[in-house]
Design goal:
Blueprint (H helix, E strand, L loop, with lengths): L2 H16 L6 E7 L3 H13 L4 E7 L1 H10 L2 H4 L4 H13 L2 E6 L11 H22 L5 E5 L3 H7 L5 H15 L6 H21 L2 E7 L5 E6 L10 E2 L5 E2 L8 E3 L1 E11 L4 E3 L2 E11 L2 E9 L1 H7 L9 E6 L5 H4 L7 H4 L5 E5 L14 H6 L8 E5 L6 E6 L4 E6 L2 E2 L2
Parallel strand pairs: 1-2, 1-3, 3-4
Antiparallel strand pairs: 5-6, 5-17, 6-10, 7-8, 9-14, 10-12, 11-12, 12-13, 14-15, 15-16, 17-18, 18-19
């Protein structure tokens, strides 16, 4: 891939993604796959007048070794220096850039029960720090190719060819063509117009149906609104948390979901794929799950804490989205969630509450925004999906017909 194009992508992530401001700190989280591109992102962050840029490298085989050899007590311990770092993040509010390139099967064979218990123990310590940063910081998730990931998508190609093909797909769906910053400004306006229409309806609940058996009704909070594209932090800084993104999303009301939904794409969770699964809800809670592959992992996921069995997001994405049209199964939620309508188990978004800037996090959650240590998107959209909105004034308004916007 041409370095000039990659430089434009790095600039997009820094300028339109996290929108680094003069004097801000930046933390980049990355695997070992693309060090040269990470260097470009660091350079662009400093050109945006960042005060300090830190790169936190990770490597899936090392995570497997930690889980294998550390005791459960050690795995679930937050050391004093780690807690001090969390407090530093609360004080400084650094921009966070996550460059994902994970192998979808990279943690296969790991003791997931042990990992889950360790994460649960740590979360009791880390949650207060996470809550204090909610909606205050800029963050962006973007992608770079990893060799194993590329070969998963394009197994018939050589490693070099697969990496190049994945670069092409990432850059195309991320609108890195011509002037990407201007392209994202236009894209954000389009998403905003969709959200404005949805918010004008006064939706009380959404009813999803599809030929695969999906028949699910999800309740909405009167105080909530659809959002999409860029967001504005409580510091007043506009940023784009996901590159790419095609969704209009909302946090539903906790406790109001009835029926069954069938996933239409695999879910990558903890470095493993959950495939061919369905979830049945009663009074908002997932009470029954089935999966053709990794059913036990799906059950572990929705039992991570009390809120993990409830919905945190409903997102609308047409089948004609650029990511869907490219025809690839990415085995990566950042892309696959933007190829189809999806739901998320776990944490909801406080910033989908109207006037959230003038409310506390606790107030937002009191309306029905779900709280959890997880937020895991899974795809449900398909060519036969219909979605109807039942409004608070008694109307039924078509939102989706056969996988496409109905307005």
């Amino acid at each position: 891939m041409k370095k000039t194009v990659l430089r434009e992508y790095a600039r997009l992530i820094v300028r339109s993604g996290v929108n680094v401001q003069k004097g801000q700190d930046v933390i980049i989280y990355a695997e070992l796959d693309q060090p040269e591109f990470v260097q470009m992102v660091v350079d662009e962050a400093y050109k945006a007048k960042a005060r300090k840029v830190t790169v936190n490298w990770s490597y899936q085989p090392l995570q497997k070794l930690d889980v294998r050899y550390q005791s459960l007590k050690t795995l679930g311990t937050v050391e004093a220096w780690e807690e001090a770092r969390l407090q530093h993040y609360v004080d400084v509010l650094p921009c966070r850039i996550h460059l994902v390139s994970d192998d979808p099967d990279g943690l296969k064979g790991m003791n997931l029960e042990k990992l889950a218990k360790g994460r649960q123990a740590m979360y009791k310590i880390t949650k207060p720090y996470i809550d204090q940063r909610q909606n205050k910081e800029q963050w962006c998730i973007a992608a770079v190719p990893g060799a194993a990931w590329a070969k998963k998508i394009f197994p018939e190609l050589s490693k070099r060819q697969a990496m190049e093909k994945l670069w092409e797909a990432i850059l195309a769906t991320s609108r890195v063509d011509g002037d990407p910053v201007a392209a994202w400004e236009t894209h954000n306006r389009d998403l905003e117009a969709r959200c404005n229409y949805l918010n004008s309806l006064g939706i009380d609940k959404l009813h999803y149906t599809a030929d695969n058996g999906t028949d699910l009704t999800v309740g909405m909070m009167p105080e909530a609104q659809f959002c999409g594209g860029g967001e504005t932090s409580l510091q007043g800084i506009f940023y784009n948390p996901n590159i790419p993104t095609e969704e209009c999303f909302i946090s539903p009301k906790r406790g109001e979901a009835e029926g069954i939904v069938y996933a239409t794409k695999p879910l990558s969770y903890q470095g493993q794929l959950i495939e061919g699964f369905s979830i049945r809800f009663e009074k908002g809670k997932a009470v029954e799950v089935h999966a053709e592959k990794n059913e036990a992992l799906l059950k572990t996921m929705i039992s991570m804490d009390e809120g993990a069995a409830y919905l945190g997001e409903c997102a609308l994405v047409p089948q004609s989205s650029p990511i869907a049209q490219c025809g690839y199964l990415f085995y990566n939620t950042l892309f696959d969630e933007n190829a189809a309508c999806h739901l998320a188990m776990g944490m909801g978004f406080a910033d989908t509450i109207r006037d959230y800037q003038n409310k506390t996090l606790e107030e937002c959650r009191s309306y029905g925004v779900n709280d959890s240590m997880i937020h895991e998107d899974f795809m449900i959209g398909c060519d036969s999906m219909n979605i109807d909105a039942y409004t608070r004034d008694g109307k039924v308004v078509p939102i989706f017909r056969k996988g496409e916007w109905a307005f």
